[in-house]
Amino acid sequence: MKKYKIAVIKGDGIGPEVIGETIKVLDKTGKEFGFAFEWNEYPYSAGHYLATAEIMPEHAMEEMSKCDAMLLGAIGDPRVKPGIMEQGILLALRFRFDQYVNLRPAFSLPRVKTPVDLKGIKIDSVVVRENTEDLYMCIGGTTESGELELPVDVSRGKYELTGSIKLKTDPRYPFAAQAAINSKPGVERITRYAAELAKKRGEDTVTVVSKSNAVSALYGFFEEVAKKVMADEYPELKYAMVNVDALCYHLVRNPSAYGVLLCPNLFGDIISDLQAGLAGGLGTAAGGNIGEGLSMFEPVHGSAPDIVGTGRSNPVAAILSGAMMLEHLGEGEASKKINKAVSDFLENASNEDLPFEFGGTSTFEQVGENIRRNI
Ligand code: NAD
Ligand code: IPM
Ligand code: MN
Question: Is 71 touching ligand 1 by the criterion CB < 6 Å?
Answer without folding.
Answer: no
